[in-house]
Amino acid sequence: MRDELVAEASDSALLEALTGNEIALVADKTNLKSHSAQVAFVTSAIVLARSGHRVTLLAPDLELRQSSSPLRLGTLVGALVELGTDLLPGVEFETGAPKSKVDLEIRFGDTPPAVAARSSFAVQADAWRARLASRADQWGASIDVPFGGMAAGGAAAAEAFKITMRRLRHFALNPATFDTFFAPAQTLNMAIAPPDVPLPRDLGEFELVSGGAIGHASLFAISRILNVSAHARVFDDDRYAISNLNRYMLTRLSDLGEWKVWHLSRQRLGRMRLEPVPERFQSETALSRGFDSRVLVGADDIPTRWEAQRRQPKWLGVGATTHWSAMASAHPHGGACAACLHPQDDPTVGPIPTVAFVSFWAGLMLATYFVRELVGVPASGQEQQTFLTPFRLERVWRSSVPHHRNCPLGPHVRRVA
Ligand SMILES: [Zn+2]
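^ inputs. structure came back:
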């Protein structure tokens, strides 16, 4: 937030803008039949609440098609309310009609408006496409693919965050660019993958490098695939701290202090089995244990990506964030590698600024590349990397990843093992 604001903006002004933002999620029974819509509702509720917004859930308490971590209960509203008691200090979900005008009403599908609101829009999704507009069609009752719904939830959360920023407009460093950047999206119609990409049921073996925010978002995303199974190994040598709660999709307040990998290994994520490796990723470790799988890297630290690439996996995907932007890339064996894409280290000193919806988008895109690789419909050579700013999803950059002449991993070698 401080990237955009003059130094006089106090911490308390920022906190007030975050926690004073009142959002109502409004959905009726017809529009909540599908797994897609339920996932969209849950995703937006969690991402909004993690930014400290005050979220009211106005929806029937339907049986969930799937209840996975961080949810513990089996019904939509009940599970979110329970999660809200253990999410962030001072943040809970409300369920009663708001007593005053809310800042934003988010309607799901063609659910009619239900509250007095300063602004209102509708979201809807297909398998791999998210839509946002002043009104939307009914949410298809049989959409089981959750990815479009998660994109809709992530897009809605970014729109809500813009309201927080607009409350701070009097502190804008550059009012003209501020107004353009934080203007509401009028409409959004965004595909994160082609419509016919099927879903895998068994993800096989994979390694996840880092149990951080992007790893959490990727696990959240792939675990929403109905009946999914996998055997994954998660590398991380750190414990949860309170500064993780604003963006770690699977972490609860009561998890603070726990080792990330042990916590992750205990989560209910479909039939995925997560094996904890409580250490920093080292390719020697992976090789000595005979791992031969695909690797997902959710670490902003560039040397960590090089290390993962060094062990020459079948496939490597990277999710990363910078400021308000999220990126992801896919590196099949033999193609341009993660070090070709980022040949120089870019060390960060001090605390890393992060926000819920940016980390979420990085993880969602990484999960999308991974799923496409598994089902044999990989992204084309022209779409090996994606860069987007969730505030301005009207424009998404997709491009190839060329081999870099001075790749720090040297001239590209054949697989060793
Ligand atoms: Zn390279």
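The mean pLDDT is 94. The pocket of zinc ion is lined by residues 336-337, 339-340, 404, 407, 409, 412 (CB under 6 Å).
thumbs up if we can close this ticket
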